[in-house]
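Researcher: Quick one. two chains, 824 residues in total.
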Amino acid sequence: MSAEMANEIKLISGRSHPELSDKIAKRLGIEVARTISLNYSNQETSFTVGESVRDEDVFIVQSTATGDVNEGLMELLIMISACRTASARRITAVIPNFPYARQDKKDKSRAPISARLVANMLQTAGANHIVTVDLHASQIQGFFSVPVDNLYAEPSFLRYIRENFNPEDCVIVSPDAGGAKRATSIADHLNTAFALIHKERPRPNVVGRMVLVGNVEDKVAILVDDMADTCGTLVKAAAVLKENGAKSVLALVTHGILSGNAIETLNGSVLTALVVTNTVPLGDKVQRCPKLRVIDISPTVAEAIRRTHNGESVSYLFTHAPV
Amino acid sequence: MRGTLIFSGTSCPSLTKQICENLGMAPAEAELTQFSNGETSVRILTSVREKDVFVVQSGSPKINDTIMELLIMISACKGGSASKVTAVLPYFPYSRQSKKKSHRGAITARMLANLLGVAGVKHIVTVDLHASQMQGFFKCPVDNLHAEPLIARWIRHNVPDWKEAVVVSKNAGGTKRVTSLADALKLNFGMVTTDKRRGHNMTASMIMNHLDGIERQPVLDPISNQVRTTSTEPEKEATNAQSQDSRVVADGQGSPRPAANGTCARSASNPKPHHTRSQTTLSQSSVIDELDEEAEGDELEFNDQRAAEVIHGRLVQGHIVPDDFVSPAESVAGTEIPDEDPMVMSHASSFFAPQSHALGGSGDAEASSDEEEEILKPKVEHMITLVGDVKGRSVFIVDDMIDKPGSWIAAAETVRKRGKAEKVYCIATHGVFGGDCLEQMQACDCIDTIVVTNSYPIPEEKARKASKLVVLDLSFLLAEAIRRNHYGESMSPLFQHVLDS
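Model:
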């Protein structure tokens, strides 16, 4: 009988990104569930749900703050496990930026496929469903045996470009060959030109020589990528575009991880703006970097939660950004 | 050992090195770093194909990073076609969260067991699990080694009058652990328990205080202050003198210096185990809550007399029920124990507040059954009770780990001030020493020696400053466990006490 009874959305927030959870909750017109998260004196994480989740549809929102990835991940796992133990009907992990997404292949001998490990861990903890945004590689969805909804920031980006620029003046640029698909998709939607920068990468987080393929002269060059970490690539690419005659250069990036000296690097670069979504908590970075603009992704995530709960199709969100 | 690789996590390189030295091999090479965004990076620098791989990882202040690193290392070795991956965890993280202690809390230890399973571990070697039931969380075999033989050995070799000593549990939950050591050494055992029942007991302890003539400020006075003022100077000097030479680092065998008295200290020759045991453990005939009727002077006498009447002392031990086992033996108004962490967790469900984060960043990792719960409620007065005669004897206060100092100091002060114990040894397997625990215990006049193993890494500088600290070496035990695992030999001998010379 209970299976037919209507249940409710329980939105649970981890400690990594409460602002995003609050926005999602506001959007859904509900309150974030009461919880207690704390660290013991030996730094072990402890979590307790403050209200009943029995037979409810639980959504756990946890991003991973830069520098505290493992902390956030363990907390997420413990939260999932606690809800599972507390008889939740379904547990959906809403992970806007999937941790360890870049360690998704065995590119060297004995390299760990940590993304698959994380996928297995989430399922072991008891997640029934995953909602995420712009996975580094869509193949990560295949690491799960539960459904994964990979949302796109693209519709939000398209709107941003349309609102702020004349698409005819723009060239969409991919900073590397791997991101060409993402960039061409945006270029197609806007009906604009497309360019690509080829880079040699001797080691991770180290960028070698860069070659521009395509024409950016007297255009607004828009770099598109899924994540901005140390920003070395973006800044070098921007310089290359500038050298090739671009009027101005900005970057549209889904996940603003911005670790290390990213802010300083950005401030000293030729980029006019770095536009990111709020999938990752940015803290005081917006204050420290005048070039940083933030697009709110919470409407898309909230809508995905609502549709998932009601059993509606999520496809609409792949092409449209809810207002 | 052929076909074996031992990897070390970042938490315990020195322990791994010692283990490898014992086995006559070098630790396998791996590069463990973090990416700039905080993700853990693991590179296994040597071939693991068809190898028997052991990964050693303990706890650290960045416990979640440590766990992720372990999981990724296991996963990398499995992905690199290792024939078998064994996790060697001298200290099992999250082992205290092994049950649902509040509504809707997580059983994190079980989850961690499952996570190790999906990462690809085929075998677990660990030491003194907080609850041995945790072995049931794993689908793979678990070897839960005991540090007890090592500790017993240390006691026999380093405590001059150990045969007369008393092993004391500082809470009811740890009684079983304590009786086990007491059995091994054929010693008497006692127990310190803090009364959790509030209300009527508060009056009881207040009356006790009154009778004791302790000048007592209102309920908010922390016991440490009180004790410091009452402790006498000569006692302090004695403590200091003792602590000068008390720091001993034991060798792989756990015996630093086979002292002359070690040879005569054969526990097998102890003539009076059963009889004395029954004397110190009081029966349930003790009248609960009527102790306030008795004056303290009479009480001691009465205690001995009554204890002698008990015949089935040994049997009683097995059935000690913490809440009912209140005895008039020696009562202390244990009272208020300073507690830096407002820990309301275990009762959280009853008074939930929306601003949960206001609870602060840390709480007490609540532990086995009842322990430390008394310290959870600051500003509430408790009664601490000592069961057993420790007068003029050395006392070993034993538990599985030292994390927070509160209960240790309370217990030490109880046996020293009330029980008139001569020397107090705090003994535990895992020296987690959260916060400034080690400093506080070092500063406590009632503690003479702190004995732990190197299962949990203690920062060298911290250890150097703590003159009372003795660190026993586990590497021999772990190395032997690894060797026996690899060759498929029995583990049982590692659990036995060796009555060595």
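The longest strand of chain B covers residues 394-402.
Researcher: Thanks, that's what I needed.
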